[in-house]
Amino acid sequence: MSRAPILEIPGDDPEQKTSPDNLTPTETEIMETVAEAWKHVIRDGFSTPIFPDIQTNAEDKNGKTVDNVNGKTTLQSCSNGGGPAICGDSEVVPNNSNGGGGKTTSVLKPSPSVGISLENLLEVPIGGSGKNGGAENGSGTSMMDEAWEQLSRSYVYFKGQRVGTLAAIDTGGETLNYNQVFVRDFVPCGLACLMKTDADVDIVKNFLLKTLHLQGWEKRIDNFTLGEGVMPASFKVIQDPNRQKEVLQADFGGTAIGRVAPVDSGFWWIILLRSYTKCTHDYSLSELPEVQRGMKLILNLCLSDGFDTFPTLLCADGCSMIDRRMGIYGYPIEIQALFFFALRCARQLLKPEHDGKELIERIDKRITALSYHIQNYYWLDFTQLNNIYRYKTEEYSHTAVNKFNVIPESIPDWVFEFMPLRGGYFIGNVSPARMDFRWFLVGNCIAILSCLATPAQATAVMDLIEERWADLIGEMPLKIAYPALEGHQWRIVTGCDPKNTRWSYHNGGSWPVLLWLLTAASIKTGRPQIAKRAIELVEQRLAKDGWPEYYDGITGRYIGKQARKYQTWSITGYLVAKLMIENPSNLLIISLEEDKKIAKPKLTRSASWTC
C-alpha cells in the first residue's frame, strides 16, 4: 500500500517565503486544490476521495512526469514495507479522460505535506474558534462554553494581574500542590488563550515574565545550590504577614515527591515564548535583555561540556511530566524531544549580539547531532526490531552494528506482539546495554511537532496509533505510557509506588490533556481524522465526569483512583484540540517546519582511530 505524497514548500526562512503571486499557474492550482480538500477533510474525514486529479504535463530529462519544473514544489509518495516509510515519486497514472493526449495525472493523497507548509494551506478558518461549538455536556450548554468558564475560574492573580492558572479547582480533596501554577500545566492553558478568536495574550505574557523573574532566585535544596538557569516547577501566590503584601513562592523541586528539579520546565518556557511571538508577531518581549539572558541561562545549562559521549541529556527519574519513579532515568525520549524543540525555538528568538552568535553556533551543532542520534538509535519499527533480535553482542570496533551492546534476550515479549507491520515509534530510552521499548506519547508527538521525526517517521507514528488504537487510545484518550509495569517489574522499577499501580496514573493511565498533542500531530501529518475520532471519545464523558486529571484501566474506562476533578489542563487540552481541529492554521502557533539547513552529518572515522 503506497503512502501519502509529500508536498514540500519553503518554511520559516523569510528569503524563501512562498506567496500565491509568484507561483506558476500549475502551483497555484495545486495550492487551491489542497486548501479546498482540507475543508472536506475537516468536515467529512477521509472516508471519500477528496483530491481531484491534477493535470501535470511537465517531464524530466528521462521523460518521467513531474509536477513542477521550477523546484519550489515537490510531490512524492512514501511506502512503508514493515519498516520506516521510504519516500519515492508521486503516484502517476494515465489520464484517459482527455482522449489519451499524452498527459498524465498525479493523484494527491492525505499526507504529511499538510503540516509542512501550513501558512499557505490553512489561512481560512474552518468554523469558529470562539466560545461555542462542541458536544453538549448534559446541561444544555456546549462543552466548549463550559470549558472556557472553568478556565476563567482557574486564573491566578498577582497584584491585580493574571499570571497563570491553578493546576486544579477541585474542592473535594486535600489541596496538596494542586493550588499552584505549574509551568508545564500552563502550556495548554496559554495556547488556548493564544488560539481563541480574540486572543488573550496578556496572561501569557505575564506568566512568561513572572516565571523568568523566579528563575533569578537562588535555588537551594538542603546545602546544594541548583544551576542558575533552572526554571521553577511551580509557584503560588501567598500573603506575606510581615510585609503585608502578596509575594510569589516558587518550588524548584525541593518540595516535590522525589526532590527532583524539573528539566522540562525551561524547555516548555522557551516553547511557549516562541508560541507567543508567533501568535502576536511581537518580538519586543523576546528581545528584552532579561528574556534573552533567561534563554541563554537555560541553554548553557544544557549545552555545558561534560563526560557525555551522546548529544542527548542525562536525566534523573521524575524530572518531567512523569514526576515519580517510573524507570525513565537516563535519556528519556520526552526530554530529548523537548530539548530539540526548545533548541529550534531558541534558534529563532536569540539575537546574535554579544555572546549570542557563539551560542547559536553551539545550538546548530547540537541540533544536527541530536536529530541524527534520535532518528537512528531511538527509532523502532518491524524491520529494526527484527535487526535488534538478531544482534550480535560484545562487538569491539568502529564498525560495530550493535553500538550499545544491547542483549537481544532483554527485548520484552510484549514488543513482538505490539509491533505492527505498518508503523513505528521512538522508544522510551537508549543507553549502554539498555533499551526501554515502552511507548511514550509526549515524546513521540513532540518529535513530530518539532520535526525531530522525519516525514516518513512521523507518518509511521500515526500509522502505529491507528493500528494499535485499542491499546493506545482505548475508551478515553490517551495512554501516557504503554504498557503498564506489573508484578515484580512494578515493584523493582517503581519501588512499589501505590499511586503508579498498573494501568493507573503514569503507569499506563489515560490522560485527557494529551489530546492536544495528538491533535497537533494528526493535523501536521495530514491525518485529522485521527484527532476527530479521539475528540469524539473525549466528548462522550470528560465534562460529565467533571474533567478529571486521568483515567485508570487497560482501556481508560474508570476515573483515576486519585484523580482530581476540574483539572485545568484536562480542560485546556480539550480546548486546544478543538481550536486546532476547527481552525488548523492554529497549528502554526505550536508547530515548527522542517529546517532544510540542518546538515546531514557525514559519518567519518573517529579522529582518534588509527590503523
UniProtKB/TrEMBL annotation:
This is Alkaline/neutral invertase. It comes from Sesamum alatum. Residues 1-24 are annotated as: Disordered. The keyword Nuclease does not apply. Its EC number is 3.2.1.26. It comes from the Eukaryota. InterPro entries: 6-hairpin_glycosidase_sf, 6hp_glycosidase-like_sf, Glyco_hydro_100. Keywords: Carbohydrate metabolism, Glycosidase, Hydrolase.
